[in-house]
Design brief:
heterodimer, A: alpha+beta, Beta-Lactamase, six-stranded antiparallel beta sheet, 19 helices, 41% helix, B: alpha/beta, Transcription Regulator spoIIAA, five-stranded mixed beta sheet, 4 helices, 5 strands, globular
Chain lengths: 785, 126
């Protein structure tokens, strides 16, 4: 399918706009993405840092007063009552502290259960109890033993405080050594507890996506706090499983050295890969950590991406719609114009054009197109008129050509046989009608002939030619016609009259005695005829006069000569020798003479047709510039003859055929030629016998004359004047059996088997002459009449 | 010039073959006409004129052939010619003789045609 203009506009517009939008969004996205990620990281980092510093603060808020208390105890070992009071104040004054204990070294106490007062929160109130006397001695507890062994303050691992606060907690233990006397006697341990629930408060503020959370680990990896309470006190390794094969011990060790640690882990509670980050909290030895799914954390980024794509697609759709709309609006008149021009090309000039009011290029185009259509309509109307008048003119010209040809003997292509003389003539106008003419007429034994050429071509020449040929034919038929020179003189005088246009005629006139071959010939501005024999072709040496119709004082000289048997005259007009070839070269009279010389052995019709064909071959497609007329007159050499006269009675046909077949001359001709002549004679004789109704006692004559190039069979009968060539019935040929005519075949056979057929009436006899060229020249069954 | 003819009837092939030798001209045409009429009267579907030895033909002879062809066609039968010599073919050509008449250049062509016809007839009878 061919691409419409609208598509060719819309597609690249949309594509380029789409590309620009996509590029813009991409750049914006690249820039914004970095910002968003940074922001997200900042927020996560700062919320963690915040939690960390809060926890730090909380630890410090617990540690500092406990250390102060421990210091106080160390310096006043005996003042246990005041220490208990201070313990109470510590719990009361620090909301982070769940409880605080003063556990005295059991070795310094008389009571075997030891002495360990414990102050703690119970709801809104402060409660007091003792840790001594529990199921497990307090000096066996972690918080006591670890601190004692370490000899310095420490946070113990979280535990459930059974028999104390009954909550999950972690404890800051400070060993107290007597500072009042040397030896640093171990006095006991002062502790403060933080309920693990406290940590949760700080961690719930950490925003790490839907599933991510912050957590606090103790030094050996127990979860001190997480937003979800059930995670508390569980080892972190049971909650978060590293995906890169590292162990938590290693991670914690790394974090304990102060490095921030990050590792991929399986997300707790949902199917995704998460990242865990870990940092040590100074100085407690705890770690604050965060676990989050990057996909979740980056959800705002994903949302942003979705938004960008949605906006981009929406913009693209809008652009496509807009581009299509605008293009359609722009292109619609052009498309309508294209359809209209298609309709106009098919001839529908009345087709409606698009209405365009604007004065832009399209408006101008439509208006110009409309004007063109109107002009085209006018032009076509004019053309129709012109064509009609032209075809009328052509019809008239065709009729004129017909009429002109009918002025020429045998309509422009003629043959004649009289005695020893054979004539062939043809005219070929360069246009429908022309100014060339030929004419001939037999007066008894005398053959009067003319070949002429009127100046100019076309209709004016044709009209002048019509006048000239009627004058020439008057001369030809006039009994006792004047000699050619005088005839030229008379013609000149008549053609001079009222010849305001100064048309003129070149003419060759001649009279040939067909018995004696005496020739009288005269020229008026015409090329002398060529005289051709076996030796070559030479123009006759004749002094000519000027062309007819111009000069009132013109003188014409006749020339008398006698043709020798075997000589041939070729009379031609300048259309032949002045033919041009595509290179612009003219044939010339010498080359034309050469052409005739080469064809000297051929019978006149073959030589004439051949010469014209040779001129055409020379012209090689160059349009014929001038009319061509050629007349060939042969003085045939006398051939070998045989003849007989047969009585006009039944059996005439058989007798005639018998005679012919007995002739040795026939045998000379060769099988084909002999048979064709026999069939032809049979046809003639059969007709004669059947239909001619010859008078009793009369005779029919048959002669056979054989020359080197032809055999001539002549049949003379004394019957009523009857030209079978013109008047006998001819059957229609080529029809299927049921419609075929049974008779009327003979004449077809006659003209098919022989090359020329002539009829004349001579001395009260019908004379039929059949010419059959010798097999060398007999090309199929050509006909020349 | 004489014309000799002989006719053979092939009832099996429903065909009459007339062999012609010599000249078919004005003189011999009437005799040929009557003998051909006799052959036609035998009633075979196909009448073949075998012209292998026919040397000469004129319009009088053609007339007889045209007439026979016309008659046979009217009866739904047909006339064909075989083995024409060149000069005979030339005369047929000049007269554009009967475009519907079958012409066989030799006996082989004729036999092939007859075989084809026969198998068609048999096929039709089955």
């Amino acid at each position: 399918m061919r691409q419409s203009l609208a598509a060719r506009l819309t597609v690249p517009l949309t594509l380029s706009a789409g590309l620009i939008i996509a590029l813009g969004l991409l750049v914006d996205y690249r820039l914004s993405r970095a910002g968003i990620i940074e922001q997200l990281e900042d927020s996560a980092r700062s919320s963690l840092a915040n939690a960390r510093s809060l926890i730090d603060g909380m630890a410090e808020g617990v540690e500092t007063p406990v250390r102060v208390l421990a210091d106080l105890a160390a310096r006043n070992p005996a003042d246990a009552g005041r220490l208990e009071l201070a313990l109470e104040a510590l719990v009361e004054g620090n909301r982070h502290i769940f409880g605080a204990a003063l556990a005295v070294n059991p070795e310094l106490v008389a009571d075997p259960a030891g002495y360990a007062p414990f102050v703690f929160r119970r709801g809104e109130r402060i409660a007091r109890t003792t840790l001594a006397g529990g199921p497990e001695p307090y000096w066996e507890r972690d918080w006591f033993r670890a601190a004692t062994q370490a000899g310095e303050p420490l946070w113990v691992e979280p535990y459930y405080d059974a028999g104390g606060g009954e909550v999950l907690m972690t404890t800051f233990s400070v060993p107290v050594f007597d500072a009042t006397e040397p030896g640093r006697r171990f006095l006991g341990v002062i502790t403060a507890d933080i309920a693990l629930a406290e940590f949760r408060r700080y961690l719930t503020g950490v925003d790490l996506g839907e599933h991510g959370f912050g957590f606090v680990l103790s030094g050996d990896g127990t979860i001190l706090g997480a937003p979800r309470a059930e995670l508390a006190v569980r080892p972190v390794a049971s909650v978060l499983e590293p995906l890169d094969g590292r162990r938590w011990g290693a991670l914690l060790g790394q974090a304990a050295d102060g490095e921030p640690v990050a590792a991929p882990v399986r997300c707790p509670g949902f199917e995704a890969d998460c990242t865990v980050q870990l940092r040590r909290i100074e100085p407690t030895g705890w770690f604050i950590g965060a676990v989050y799914s990057e996909a979740e954390v980056l959800k705002p980024l994903r949302d942003y991406e979705t938004r960008v794509i949605t906006v981009g697609v929406a913009m693209l759709v809008l652009i496509v719609l807009t581009a299509t709309f605008v293009t359609r609006r722009l292109v619609a008149p052009i498309q309508a114009l294209a359809r209209a021009s298609g309709a106009i090309a098919r001839g529908h000039l009345g087709v409606e054009l698009p209405r365009v009011r604007s004065d832009d290029e399209i408006g101008q185009l439509v208006r110009a197109f409309d004007a063109m259509r109107r002009d085209l309509g006018d032009y076509i109307d004019d053309l129709a008129v012109a064509t009609a008048s032209r075809s009328r003119l052509e019809g008239e010209l065709a009729a004129a050509r017909d009429i002109q040809l009918s002025m020429l003997p045998q309509r422009g292509s003629a043959t004649l046989r009289q005695g020893q003389v054979a004539l062939w003539a043809a005219v070929r106008p360069a246009r429908s009608v022309g100014g060339d003419l030929y004419s001939f007429h037999l007066q008894g034994d005398k053959l009067l002939f003319a070949v002429g050429d009127v100046s100019d071509k076309g209709v004016p020449a044709a009209l002048f030619m019509a006048r000239a040929i009627s004058l020439i034919q008057q001369w030809e038929v006039q009994p006792g016609a004047v000699p050619p020179a005088i005839a030229l003189h008379q013609l000149n005088a008549v053609l001079l009259e009222d010849n305001d246009n100064c048309m003129f005629l070149t003419l060759c006139l001649g009279v040939l005695d067909t018995r004696t071959l005496d020739l009288e010939i005269a020229l008026a501005g015409h090329a002398p005829p060529l005289c051709i024999d076996e030796r070559g072709a030479e123009p006759l040496a004749i002094a000519g006069g000027p062309a007819l119709g111009l000069n009132p004082d013109a003188r014409f000289q006749g020339q008398s000569m006698r043709l020798a048997p075997g000589e041939r005259l070729a009379l031609y007009t300048d259309g032949l020798d002045e033919a041009f070839n595509p290179a612009g070269a003219m044939l010339g009279s010498e080359a034309l003479a050469q052409i005739f010389a080469e064809r000297a052995p051929e019978p006149p019709p073959l030589a004439g047709e051949g010469a014209i064909a040779a001129v055409d071959a020379f012209a090689d497609g160059t349009p014929q510039a001038d009319d061509m007329t050629l007349m060939i007159i042969d003085a045939r050499p006398r051939g070998e003859r045989a003849g007989t006269r047969l009585a006009a009675e039944p059996g005439l046909a058989a007798a005639g055929l018998g005679w012919l077949q007995a002739q040795p001359l026939l045998a000379v001709l060769g099988e084909d030629c002999a048979r064709d002549l026999t069939v032809a004679l049979e046809e003639l004789l059969t007709n004669l016998e059947k239909y001619a109704d010859l008078p009793a006692g009369s005779e029919a004559g048959i002669t056979l004359e054989v020359r080197r190039d032809e055999a001539v069979l002549t049949l003379r009968d004394p019957g009523q004047p009857f030209n079978p060539l013109e008047e006998a019935r001819r059957a229609r040929l080529g029809v299927p059996s049921e419609r075929a005519e049974i008779g009327g075949l003979g004449l077809h056979l006659l003209s098919g088997l022989t090359d020329e057929q002539h009829y004349s009436r001579d001395q009260a006899e019908n004379v039929l002459t059949l010419v059959r060229y010798r097999d060398l020249f007999h090309d199929g069954h050509r006909q020349w009449n | 010039m004489e014309l000799t003819t002989s006719a053979t009837i092939d009832a099996d092939k429903d065909m009459a073959r007339v062999t012609m030798a010599g000249a078919l001209n004005t003189e011999t045409a009437p005799g040929f006409e009557s003998s051909l009429e006799g052959v036609i009267a035998e009633g075979q579907h196909l009448v073949v004129l075998d012209m292998a030895d026919l040397d000469y033909i004129s319009s009088a002879g053609l007339r007889v052939i045209f007439k026979a062809a016309k008659q046979l066609k009217a009866e739904g039968r047909s006339l064909c010619v075989a083995n024409r010599q060149a000069q005979i073919a030339k005369v047929f050509e000049i007269l554009q003789a009967l475009p519907d008449m079958r012409v066989f250049a030799n006996d082989r062509e004729l036999d092939a045609y007859l075989d084809a016809m026969q198998s068609r007839v048999r096929g039709g009878a089955d």
